[in-house]
Automatic annotation (TrEMBL):
<dbReference type="InterPro" id="IPR001437">
    <property type="entry name" value="Tscrpt_elong_fac_GreA/B_C"/>
</dbReference>
<keyword id="KW-0804">Transcription</keyword>
<feature type="domain" description="Transcription elongation factor GreA/GreB N-terminal">
    <location>
        <begin position="4"/>
        <end position="74"/>
    </location>
</feature>
<dbReference type="GO" id="GO:0032784">
    <property type="term" value="P:regulation of DNA-templated transcription elongation"/>
</dbReference>
<comment type="similarity">
    <text>Belongs to the GreA/GreB family.</text>
</comment>
<dbReference type="InterPro" id="IPR036953">
    <property type="entry name" value="GreA/GreB_C_sf"/>
</dbReference>
<keyword id="KW-0648">Protein biosynthesis</keyword>
<comment type="function">
    <text>Necessary for efficient RNA polymerase transcription elongation past template-encoded arresting sites. The arresting sites in DNA have the property of trapping a certain fraction of elongating RNA polymerases that pass through, resulting in locked ternary complexes. Cleavage of the nascent transcript by cleavage factors such as GreA or GreB allows the resumption of elongation from the new 3'terminus. GreA releases sequences of 2 to 3 nucleotides.</text>
</comment>
<keyword id="KW-0238">DNA-binding</keyword>
<dbReference type="Pfam" id="PF03449">
    <property type="entry name" value="GreA_GreB_N"/>
</dbReference>
<dbReference type="Pfam" id="PF01272">
    <property type="entry name" value="GreA_GreB"/>
</dbReference>
<feature type="domain" description="Transcription elongation factor GreA/GreB C-terminal">
    <location>
        <begin position="82"/>
        <end position="156"/>
    </location>
</feature>
<dbReference type="GO" id="GO:0003677">
    <property type="term" value="F:DNA binding"/>
</dbReference>
<dbReference type="GO" id="GO:0006354">
    <property type="term" value="P:DNA-templated transcription elongation"/>
</dbReference>
<dbReference type="InterPro" id="IPR023459">
    <property type="entry name" value="Tscrpt_elong_fac_GreA/B_fam"/>
</dbReference>
<protein>
    <recommendedName>
        <fullName>Transcription elongation factor GreA</fullName>
    </recommendedName>
</protein>
<dbReference type="InterPro" id="IPR018151">
    <property type="entry name" value="TF_GreA/GreB_CS"/>
</dbReference>
Length: 157
């Protein structure tokens, strides 16, 4: 069984989603199915079919979350420091072509959100950053072509 690395905050978010699905979403969809059944013929009842579809999604997500949480390996990033990029590092990069700076925190794949600066360690850029030091050049082949970045800053929260 493969462990899933994540931060303490990432695990807390998944546990919150699991709790919400169990205590709020699941009971609500069960009530919606019961209400739709009361309207008679369910074979042509769009509300019933939509509620059943939502129930299927919720049950699938519950199984997925339980699996991820059971395999979670929480990495405490509070004690990390140094000048080498590792899981939990916040890295400031400078694009060598455009001089544009980007800041990313390396996190587990289930808590990644590149738009908000949370980059998965399994992404092409995340993999390329691991082990780099201040001033190193990182070359990444991404869907939009090859890019080069300089590691400008490495910090641990």
């Amino acid at each position: 069984m493969e462990k899933v690395p994540m931060t303490r905050e990432g695990l807390a978010q998944l546990e919150d989603e699991l709790r919400r699905l169990r205590t709020e979403e699941r009971p609500a969809v069960i009530r919606a199915i019961a209400d739709a059944r009361e309207h008679g013929d369910i074979s042509e009842n769009a509300e019933y079919h939509a509620a059943r579809e939502r129930q299927s999604f919720i049950e699938g997500r519950l199984v997925e979350l339980e699996d991820i949480i059971s395999r979670a390996q929480v990495i405490d990033t509070s004690g990390l420091s140094g000048d080498v990029v590792r899981f939990g590092a916040t890295v400031l990069l400078c694009d060598e072509d455009t001089e544009e700076e980007s800041r990313y925190t390396l996190v587990g794949s289930h808590e990644a959100d590149a738009a908000n600066g949370r980059l998965s360690v399994t992404s092409p850029l995340g993999r390329a950053l691991i082990g780099k030091r201040l001033g190193d050049i990182v070359e990444v082949t991404a869907p939009r072509g090859s890019r080069s970045y300089e590691v400008v800053q490495i910090a641990y929260a």
